[in-house]
Amino acid sequence: MPGDKAPGPDGFTGAFFSKCWDIVKGDLLSAANAFHLLRTSNLAIVNTANIVLIPKKEGATSVADYRPISLIHSFAKIISKVLAMRLAPLMNSIVSPNQSAFIKGCNIHESFLAVRSTVRRLNNSRTSALFIKLDISKAFDSVRWDYLLNLLKELGFPTRWCDWVATLLSMATSRVLINGVPCAPIRHGRGLRQGDPLSPLLFVISIDPLQKLLDLAASSGCLGKLRGRTPTLRVSLYADDTAIFVKPTQKDVTALSRLLRNFGDTSGLLDNAQKSTVVPIRCGGLDLTAILTNFEAQTKQFPIKYLGLPLSHKCLRRVDFQPLVDKMANKLTTLEREAIKPRGPLKLVLTSQAIYSITSLSPPKSTLREIDGMRKRFLWAGAEALTGAKCKVNWLRSARPLDLGGLGVLHLGFFARALRLRWLWRKWIGRQSLELQAETPCTKKDKLLFAAATSFSIGSMPLRPSSKLNRIWTSDRLQARGWANQGHCPLCRHSPESAFHLLAECRFTKRLWKELSSWTANLELDPTNWEPSADLHQWWTNTAAVPSASKKGLRSLIILVCWEIWKERNSRVFNRAEAPLNRVLSKIKDEAGLWSLVGAKGLAIDDDMDDSNGTRLSGDALAAVFILLSDDAAAVVRCAATCRRWASVVSKNAGVLSRALPPLPTMALGFFHDQDTSTPRVRYNHNHNKRRKLLSAAADPAASFVPTAWDTPRHVLRVLSNMRRPSSPFAAGGARAVACRNGRVVLELQRHARDAGLRLSVWNPMTGDEAPLPPLSGDDKPGVYACALLTGEDLEEPPPTTRRPTSTSSPGFFRVLIVHNRRGFTALRTYSSDTGSWSAEARLDGRSPKKLKSDQLRELGQAVVIRGVAYWHLSLRLQEEEGGAAADALFAVRFDTPEPPAHVTSMPPPAFNYNFNRSYGLLGTTRDGKLCSIRAGFCAGYLSVGRTVWEEADDGTEGRWERKGRHVTFTHITLRCSDRLHLRWFCEKSGILFLTLLGDGCAYPGTFALNLATSKIDRVCDAIDDDACNSRSCFIGYEMDRASYLASIA
């Protein structure tokens, strides 16, 4: 505690405790220990404060012109100081990076520069926007305690910490000093005491949810997106000074007003309409009066005053700095009237007034000379006029340090440049804290001090001979030497790898080049603008030789990107570490910044495009939190708990922040099944080995949908329950679901005659979008078949569409694969939405049997799709009935290519010694995307489910099974040998397994949903008819796609 601060009601200062520590140490520590143990019955005696009124401005006349400052009792101040010292190191991780008040490493000038940079970017890009400077009414005095305490609990603060804060707040009393005499004590009901060391930190935490709410409103569409390629700063906070940017529309302004009102009602922090300001940016021709009808604030024009500094969308003029000169002149008059010695005020008062402005602004030299003239006159002449005879020392010599013979007076011109270089130094060492780095008030001459002093350019460096002569050790060159390797490109896993493909033709690489083209605003880097090239050398010549404003910078950037692509390729091959596209892009941006600092010319690095290093929740989770908000405090607290660095805070400070985020709703689940037992099906007469079809003209297939109420919001269930609306294909008569993936369902439409062809349709139940497929009739008509679906979400980049869509409502890109038998072989056909036609028939390759058994084909069931490959599980039960060995098989078909290759791979027995022989096998995926085999059976009379993991080998063709795995037994579900247990469907996104349990006298029949991650099992519905579910093709699971999920809860 500082020793010279004003004392509280006890009259003791920090100097007293330092001087008399040996005397008061025992009593003070005993009182502190009692507070730690919450023995606070007598705390009200020492938790008092005297309130003094400090004028906010000169000529204060009303109470609103004064700021109440609490002179707190020394013991209460010591306790608050201890809590503040423990909380301060964690503030960077708790609050948003756009809040720069009372945060270590942040300062007020960063907020000003970030706001000024956003204003100028919007003005230069001719983007219409409204800049709102929000003022919170009685900010510290109006915070609601219940809101603050709930917020601390949701952020993970322990209960004891919250009790300490609650005790300090609730047991505090204050007395107002009137003419030096304290009045009667006042007990507090809300607010934070100004003068308490802990109050600034608690207030920053209290107002931080406002920034979260504004970000969530922008991401969910409640606030419109500001036009521009670069992400725009939407809100900046410095304590209660809030700057907000919104679109100039009545919808956005009304939504913002409603959001601020709800936040104010919950937290107590209401905006002050009399002091709030709205400044239009490029809003010529708009009716601002109509737009601001529901938002009470003053309308002004630039320049305005923000954080005590002039803010403008253009360069400031000399007249804009005149208020600073006038303020210093008024201060100088006060000092002259008080007859104070000049040297102290010159350093502490006059110089500090100028330093605050020149830290983030560049005043004209004439303004600096005028300020220096006033300082010089005050130093040598005081209140009299300054003449040359009164100046005893040259002004430049006066600005020297004392040890060099000067007076230690700061030279504003030199010191202003030193302050500007401070911003470059902070950027050099990575100390800038705002997520959107602001432009620095530095000249080109200043920036040269932090660049290489030589004329060497990385772009002038010649290519390495290994790349120019095509000697990079890619898979094509390794195969030429006979060395074993995977063969496919490790980035796209689709095409053979070569140096040219890796750097220019790969789908992953093209997406990276396209992102870089958007980041640098350089169309030459967009792959769609490249000229055709035959090899790598020609591609480099064509790309690097295009006319550009900075050809050397373009070459440097191309070399840098190629180097990072090669490093990512090696990381995937040798370390099995796969980085997503945004991570590779972030590495390129960081490396480009370093190259620019060491002298690479022409690399236009825009710091505003840098990604945040913090951990973020997914976009659908954040949107779900925002949309589910209500007016109570707990809902706002849940929103505030979605901190961008939440994961790192919990992992690094698990002892202090021990609570986790509340669970968010999962995706909606359900399944389709054929309800009518008289549905026409294809069956076999095994005695005569002849196929016969059972047709029933009177009954049509009746497919039903059963929603699953497992961790699913009620409003989502209502949407799913209405899935069979009149416009759905089910109402058209006899549609049957045969495959499902990523929220799309493949439907088999009704066949009206024996020789009718196969008619399929891809349908999104949530949007109603449908895409009918060309029928397969005549010689192309299949009999028994298995179906798989691939959507655009399964590919890194869907292929470009080569045909015009037939309708405006389309479920997006997809491919449908059917596997069916011909005489003597099993055939494969695919339909692709980008071509609009079926492919030619393909056969199983040489490593597989030419033809699958018809019963095996019928019982394939669900297909799991991983990286463009569909995997089926061949039934163990069918092989046993034929007298074969008890070994399963894995049937795999790659159908992300026009001609699908396929093969059958045997699988070893399960790793568990349990009775699985009476169950179907099923395939699924683990959380890290590995293929796994799921089986169920009975163990000691109870239901048991086991899982074995599949790993891909290095050659990419065969696989190997891990013998290790896990199983779980459910003792509350009894199972007998006579019961029929069937694994139906595995939902890959949610990890839910559907299974049915049937049988005469079954103790617990029904359909169940099992979460393999948590081992939680719920009964979904009663047992479905045995005949209707005799085949796995009659049961199709469904998971809503993310886009429809967000649309349904909006």
Automatic annotation (TrEMBL):
Which residue range or ranges hold the Reverse transcriptase domain? 35-311
What is the protein's given name?
Answer: Reverse transcriptase domain-containing protein
